[in-house]
Design goal:
Layout (H helix, E strand, L loop, with lengths): L1 H8 L3 E3 L2 E4 L1 H8 L3 H10 L6 E3 L2 E5 H10 L12
Antiparallel strand pairs: 1-2, 2-4, 3-4
Helix pairs in contact: 2-3
């Protein structure tokens, strides 16, 4: 998984300890649609994001945390976040 994340993160905005992805890049990483991430931002409860003016960016570390918090072993197990 780390290799995949590093491969997808190449060429993205990197500042100090942050790797920032736009909505399309984050959707590709999560194998979901851009619209799903947009809907999550409206209703809340999705991945934390950074808003810079009109630009939305996702910190790769926040995406990793979201994946970890929502990883379950069975359908009856409660999810994080």
């Amino acid at each position: 998984m780390i290799i995949l994340l590093l491969t997808l993160a190449q060429g993205k905005i990197m500042t100090n300890n942050y790797i920032l992805l736009d909505t399309i890049q984050a959707a590709k990483l999560l194998n979901c649609t851009k619209r799903k991430l947009e809907a999550d931002r409206i209703k809340g409860g999705g991945i934390r994001y950074i808003k810079i003016g009109k630009c939305v960016r996702y910190n790769l570390r926040e995406i990793e945390n979201y994946i970890q918090a929502n990883t379950v072993n069975s359908t009856s197990q409660p999810r994080g976040l």
